[in-house]
Specification:
With about 475 residues, the chain is α/β, with parallel strands linked by helices. It is about 30% helix and about 10% strand. It has 15 helices and 14 strands. The protein has an eight-stranded mixed sheet with strand order 6-5-7-1-8-11-4-12, sandwiched between helices. A two-stranded antiparallel ribbon has the order 2-3. A two-stranded antiparallel ribbon has the order 9-10. The longest helix is centred in the last third of the chain and has 25 residues. The protein is globular and about 80 Å long.
């Protein structure tokens, strides 16, 4: 009973999961392992040494064609970003780029189309709430990359780098976590995913496990939002406090050795860990603190409560939050049945989020963007086994952007009469992410630390003409 490690192993909280969630104070994983397992493990020698910094790349050659043109930059307004990732690919023609005159083979049973509160912007019948708020967001209807593979298209949309390169680049969320690390002082990790990562690619890329997103797990629509490593079903606050006090009492090494830099670092990590479990970090995920009528407005479903939790994380200062849509949009079959259920939930949750951020004066500093890795085929596939489904479509799809310096009430680009091809103003991943980075004060040309010292930058240093249409200056 005097062995602190054996005592910890008998407790239900998994310290390793908590270790993975923190992002500061030396190395996240090592610091928390020491902080939670007790400082007795420090006698193990140099295993906790901070390690040498990654080698820096040699001075790069001037880029032939810059991905981010040298133009007057707008003010960096976005302090937090909420990305709603519609993994699987949501149909653009059934949602934010409807084509009423395309005919039955393209629209199927979809017959109603809604005018919005901005003249000229029309949505499908499943988005009445967003139709009332078109002045708060803009639609990109000419997003394109031409890639129809889930993994490769997701990689393109979330890194702006072409798949198949020798380097596995980090996602936009991991880049934010890296770039904002020094200035962020919140209780939660800087890159959080609600509720599960999709595993389409390794979001942290070559930046390593310390910048892997913290996935909450659980369900915010449940009676208790059980967040991985923070809120446990089988342990209450009193027991957590008792465990913390037990660890402190067993910390004989600190009592005998006194304060040293490494012991102080471990104590800081332990304090940070328990701040997540028992302090402000935990409070962020307690949705019962919100008024029931507000929770109803977001929708009493997982996605709606995901959006509410994301707003609370913005208030806590978290730089980058991803909502991976529960259920996905890979509608090869049962397309219209799935859309009829999920699209109204997306409409309710997203509209409530934009209105709530706006009412609280937070939309100007919170950038929201929402899309999948591609769209769905505009022409319905009536043949078995699909029987009225839509296939992958990377030639053109739609993105919703709002806040953080993006103007509302605009449409960028256009698809053709049947939403099959880009008709005007193509927008590529490098254009979208370049604009998001600029509005957040991140230099698209900045170098990223590669563990082998290879040259790597936030955005591609060279792009072909057909892979960049320029930043979204129309709405910035």
């Amino acid at each position: 009973m005097n062995d602190p490690d054996s005592l910890l192993e008998s407790l239900p909280l998994d310290p390793h999961q908590l270790c993975m969630s923190l992002t500061r104070t030396i190395d996240r994983r090592g610091a928390l392992q020491i902080g939670l397992f007790g400082t007795a493990g420090l006698l193990g020698g140099n295993a906790f040494a901070a390690g040498a910094a990654p080698a820096t790349a040699s001075t790069p050659k001037p880029p032939a064609t810059p991905a981010v043109p040298a133009k007057p930059k707008p003010d960096a307004r976005a302090t937090s970003v909420i990305q709603i990732f519609l993994w699987g690919g949501m149909s653009h023609s059934d949602t934010w780029d409807p084509k009423p005159d395309a005919g039955y083979d393209y629209n199927g049973p979809m017959k109603k189309f809604l005018s919005s509160n901005v003249p000229g912007i029309q949505l499908s019948e499943w988005f009445p709430n967003l139709a009332k708020q078109a002045d708060k967001y803009s639609l990109i209807r000419s997003m394109t990359h031409g890639n129809n593979g889930h993994e490769t298209a997701a990689y393109l949309v979330q890194t702006a780098h072409a798949p198949g390169d020798r380097l596995a680049y980090p996602s936009v969320g991991a880049v934010f976590a890296h770039m904002k690390e020094k200035e962020y002082r919140g209780s939660l990790p800087p890159y959080v995913v609600l509720t599960k990562p999709q595993g389409r690619f390794s979001e942290e890329g070559f930046l390593g496990a310390k910048l892997k997103p913290f996935a909450t797990g659980g369900d915010p629509n449940a009676a208790r939002f059980e967040v991985e490593g923070i809120v446990s079903r089988n342990i209450n606050d009193a027991r957590q406090t008792a465990r913390r006090d037990l660890l402190k009492n067993l910390d004989t090494l600190r009592k005998s050795v006194g304060n040293t830099p490494i012991i102080e670092a471990s104590e800081a990590a332990r304090t940070e860990a328990y701040e997540m479990i028992l302090g402000k970090g935990r409070e962020v995920f307690d949705l019962t603190k919100e008024k029931p009528e507000l929770r109803d407005r977001y929708g009493r479903h997982t996605f709606g409560q995901d959006c509410l939790a994301a707003r609370r994380m913005v208030e806590a200062g978290v730089p980058y939050i991803v909502i991976n849509y529960p259920g996905g949009w890979d509608t090869h079959s049962n397309h219209f049945q799935t859309m009829g259920k999920q699209a109204p939930e997306l409409d309710q949750g997203l509209a409530a989020l934009l209105a709530d951020l706006n009412d609280r004066g937070m939309l100007e500093t919170t950038l929201v963007w929402c899309c999948g890795e591609f769209g769905r085929g505009p022409k319905i596939d009536w043949q078995p086994p699909w029987n009225g489904g839509r296939n992958h479509h990377g030639k053109v799809f739609s993105v919703l952007v709002a806040g953080g310096g993006f103007k509302g009430g605009h449409v960028v680009g256009a698809s053709d009469a049947k939403a099959e091809e880009v008709a005007e103003r193509p927008v590529y991943p490098v254009d979208l992410l370049g604009s998001i980075y600029q509005l957040a004060g991140i230099d698209g040309h900045a170098s990223l630390p590669h563990p082998m010292g290879l040259e790597a930058r936030v955005l591609p240093t060279e792009t072909k003409k057909e892979e960049s249409g320029g930043l979204l200056t129309e709405i910035m």
